[in-house]
Structure formats: C-alpha cells, structure tokens
Fold this protein.
Amino acid sequence: MKLFSFWRSLATYRVRIALNLKGLKPEVVFIDLIKGDQRSSEFKAVNPQMVIPALVDGKGPVLFQSLAIVEYLDEMHPHPPLLPTDPRARAFARGIAQIVASDSHPLVVPRIREYLERELKIDEPARMQWIRHWVGEALAAIESHLANDGMTGRFCCGDQPTIADICLASQAAGAGFFGVDLKRYPTVARVVDACMQIEAFAAAHPLKQPGAPAAGTH
Ligand SMILES: N[C@@H](CCC(=O)N[C@@H](CS)C(=O)NCC(=O)O)C(=O)O
C-alpha cells in the first residue's frame, strides 16, 4: 500500500487516522503542497485531480477522495468498524463527515485560497475572514447536531470513534491552523479531546508528520 501524503493535508489526515485505527502501515510518498508538487506531471498521472490523499493498494487502480478511501479501508479491514451498524446512526455519522469533507473543507483548500488571492485579488485579511467564516459555520452546525440529536456519546455517534470523528478531528486541526477557537463549540471540543486521547488520532495529526513545523500554520 502506498499513501500520497503531506503533513498539512487535512484530507490526508483523515486517511492516516483510518489507516492507524486499522493497524495498516503504507509506504508514504510526500507530495509537497507548498512547492506545488501536486501539479507535477508525475503526480497528475497518479491522481488527475492533483490533490491528496491518493492511495494505491496492490495493483490499483488508485483510490482517491478521503471519504471513499476511508470507507474502502473499512470494507477491506472491518475491525474496528468505522461506521455504526444501525442505519440511522450510519446516516448521522456520514452526515457529520460530509459537513466537513463535502461542505466546509473544499472552501479552504490551497487551490481555492490561491484562486481568491491570484485571480480575484482578495487580500490576506479578507481571505482569512472567508476561511474562518466557513470553518465556523460547519463547526456550529456540527455542534448543534452533537448537542441536540441524541446520537452523541463519548464520540460523535455513540462510544466508539467513527468516520464522523475522523472528519471532526480534521476540522479541528484546520480550526487550529486558521485560528478558530473551539471553545465556542463545547461538545465538539469535548469529542475532539476524546479523539486525541487515542494514539491512532494523535499520531496522525498534521503537526506530528515529517516536515511539519513546531507550531500550527496553513
Ligand atoms: N475532497 C477531497 C479533498 C482533497 C484536497 O483538496 N486535498 C488538498 C489537501 S487537504 C490538496 O491536495 N490540495 C491541493 C491544492 O488545492 O492544490 C478529499 O477529501 O480527499
């Protein structure tokens, strides 16, 4: 198994957590998003979308999109499960995951930030306002679901970590990078704390990866 990864990538963080929970240790190929390695012809041949993560398992073809990869890993390596068994709980866990991976994170990825800067000439303070707004909107929605829907235990959905926690951990890491305080989202903060007590989550954190700086940055 070969994972294309970069320390800062929040989407790759999701896959790293799943791999750790499953006890899988792929070979890691670093794609430096700051240098623009994702746009090299070599990597474009791996993932035509020019984004990470990408995972090659055996002969391929390449696996792409973090949620699809996490569910693939869960289906290939069912223990511990990353989705609850009850259909409503599965929908809840997937819903939380999608608030992060489908709605919030896409608004703050490097190519979007670069477009805001280079094409639309939006300055750094306005770009940060954009990012913090959309990161905060997702956190507020997730906080409401976790606090009010009756699904949440120690983790987002019950007492075992699921794909929802994997995505929430990545959202929390992004909040840290962009200076969004989790204190305004107390249930989120509590669940993220519980996640970080699990080695699979803590060891996968962006700031624990080779090449990461000592303190958070974007
Ligand atoms: N929806 C994708 C997002 C992939 C993505 O945008 N990855 C970022 C890093 S977290 C990336 O490689 N960005 C490169 C760029 O924007 O140029 C997923 O969840 O896998």
Remarks:
- The chain has nine helices and four strands.
- The first strand starts at residue 2 and ends at 5.
- The two ends are 28 Å apart (CA to CA).
